[in-house]
Amino acid sequence: MGPQEWLGEDESAKEMLDRVQTDRSFLLLPPLHRVPLRVGNVVEIVGPSPSAKTHILIQAAINCILPQESDGVKYGGLGHLVMFLDLDCRFDILRFSELLKLRILEARGKLLEF
């Protein structure tokens, strides 16, 4: 399936999951690791307000943008770009940057107790 065909698809999440069941998956952070998705797929996460949807997405984004290794430090990331669409305008960039900083400090072995 080419990019134009993939972008033109109008399918439900169930139909998308059924479609990608036959494709080889790549590794994602839990709980998304249970879903066989391909690079480039769009994932919609829904749930009630206190269900940690944003936290899961922030952690996944951090894992995507960090490099696998840089200057001899292993970050374990994928080194890819991320697009985060927030239609409610509730994305907290300070929270994102704090979690990213903690992940970097942890990888460098400089995580200090607060």
UniProtKB/TrEMBL annotation:
GO molecular function annotation: ATP binding; ATP-dependent DNA damage sensor activity; DNA binding
GO terms (BP aspect): double-strand break repair via homologous recombination
SUPFAM superfamilies reported in the protein's UniProt record: P-loop containing nucleoside triphosphate hydrolases
InterPro entries membership: P-loop_NTPase, RecA_ATP-bd, XRCC2
Domain of life: Eukaryota
Gene Ontology CC: Rad51B-Rad51C-Rad51D-XRCC2 complex; replication fork
Annotated ranges, domain RecA family profile: 17-114
Protein name in the entry: RecA family profile 1 domain-containing protein
